[in-house]
Amino acid sequence: MDIVVSGIRSTGNLHLGNYIGAIRNFVKMQEENHCFFFIADYHSLTTHPTPADLYDSVKSVLVEFLACGLDPEKATLYIQSDVPEVAELYLLLNMNAYLGELERCTSFKEKIRTQPNNVNAGLLTYPTLMAADIIIHKAHKVPVGKDQEQHLEMTRTFAGRFNRMYHVDYFPEPVAYNFGEELVKIPGLDGSAKMSKSENENGAIFLTDPPEVIRKKVMRAVTDSGPTQHNQPKPLPVENIFLLMQAFSEPEKYTYFNDLYNRCEIRYGEMKKQLAEDIIAFTAPFREKIETLSGDTDYLGKVARMGAEKARESASKTIRDVREIIGFKGM
Ligand code: TYM
After folding, report:
1. Which pLDDT tens digit goes with each residue over 246-259?
2. Which among 51, 132, 179, 235 could disulfide-bond with 89, CB atoms 3.0 to 4.6 Å apart, if both were Cys?
3. Cα dihedral 293, 298, 299, 304 sign
4. Distance, CA 183 to ligand 1 centroid (Å)?
């Protein structure tokens, strides 16, 4: 049976990109694998949340995990900071992670650009913490969206380096996984190539957004003044709307609007109205469950405790082995 590990950062609510790129696959994978899915709250500290915001975000992601269909009886659902063994493995991996390779990481370079006043060491070593998350359970497969591809490559580098350095065959080299398909990237409504919670909130639709907010965001999505020639290639923001329609609407609707575009008869307003209604229908069941679960603090506590216990059991075994391999044998 494959061991599957993946996580979601606790910086705000989950959006459609998180769902399609990751969570939808978590739900499928939990049926036939040994799965560990966690809320990456250590990672969220790179953005310096207040204690109250940190707590609220972790709670809302846990609620959203459950509302999306993750089953704490089938998969181990846990909060990263409940498993301090992860922090120890992070420390150990950092000893063999080099400045050059960390600085070359695309997500780090992007952070230098977007938050030049907060380029902290946690951002630089983000990939080693992620590698620790994954290899602490000796994972084989990691269901993630396309933006995490490079981090997975680095995870394999760190796992392989550990094995070679200590002449062991201990850590498997895990792969980013999407059922044999290309990894997914859901675009933003603001013309950006990736829907993201941190860059522009209006570019993202959250699972918790009520229908009127979804309508407003979709109707405001960036487009252009329309094609002037038949079968003209679509500029990025327009392509994005079509990609979203491909993900959330019936195929016939996509074909209908695509044909209109190719004949220069498209009315974006009409297309966006349709897309908004389809997204509202898609997210409705999640919204209902989120509302019901949010108030059930007892149940959420039980799920988190059960997950922490199972995750620590697996993580502490790895840490025992790793300490032994490295040479911390005790006196
Ligand atoms: P995060 O929280 O940014 O995103 C969580 C998951 O959602 C996917 N995703 C997307 N997929 C498709 N289209 C999008 N627009 C989109 N936006 C986000 C991400 O690819 C990811 O799978 N570093 C990770 C969290 C993490 C992790 C891990 C993941 C920490 N440790 C170990 C896997 C394994 C992150 O920030 O994801």
Report:
1. 999 999 999 999 99
2. 132
3. positive
4. 11
